[in-house]
Amino acid sequence: MTKYNQNFKHQTVEFYFQHHENLSLTCRTFAVPKRTLRRWLAQYQHSGINGLAVLHTKRTYTPDFKYQIIQTIQNRELTLDQACLQFGIANSGVISQWLKLFQESGIEGLQPKSKGRPAMKKPRYAKMPLPPKTEEERLRLRILELETENAYLKKCQELDREKMRKKPTLSKN
């Protein structure tokens, strides 16, 4: 959601022109940063009231479009703010991000990012042993199961004994 609606922007710009283009007075009256007001004024002077329109959907740009804007700025044909007006971009910060990404990663940095969280990897579970093929394998597996069960029971007994030792004894009065 945007902080300022189109009506508020228009009132602010009109106040600015009615009060002899006094930037400080307008900023104080409407509690708007100077940079923001300057951007609104430039948008208004470039496109009229439509330049102050609030877009309710997030705009996406193709890598070619981003590259075209970057080339225009790097060739010093337009400044960041001028490029925003010329190409209809709401804020110069967006173009600054594109410039940074382009300098770091080249044209690949301008590609759209994948949306959402990355898919989780499937958990790896221990594989079940293959069923025994011979009687000898079946008996070895059964011995292993019994030894495991025996070790578990011994550990449970040991924990029970330890618990009993720590348990406070009630004295008779």
Tag the structure with descriptive keywords.
0% strand; mainly alpha; 58% helix
Secondary structure elements and their pairing?
Blueprint: H1 6-18, H2 23-30, H3 34-47, H4 63-74, H5 80-87, H6 92-105, H7 135-166
Helix pairs in contact: 1-2, 4-6
What does it look like?
By secondary structure, the protein is mostly helical. The protein has three domains: 1-57; 60-112; 135-165. The protein is built from seven helices and no strands. The chain has helices at residues 6-18, 23-30, 34-47, 63-74, 80-87, 92-105, 135-166. Helix 1 (6-18) runs antiparallel to helix 2 (23-30) and helix 4 crosses helix 6 (92-105). It starts with 5 loop residues before the first helix and ends in a 7-residue tail after the last helix.
Q: Percentage of helical residues?
A: 55-70%
- pLDDT under 50 segments (min length 5)? none
Number of domain modules = 3
| Mean pLDDT value | 85
Following the backbone from N to C, one meets helices and strands in this order, namely: HHHHHHH
| Cα gyration radius (Å) | 36 Å
What is this structure, in a nutshell?
With 173 residues, the chain is an all-alpha fold. The protein has helices spanning 6-18, 23-30, 34-47, 63-74, 80-87, 92-105, 135-166. It has three domains: 1-57; 60-112; 135-165.
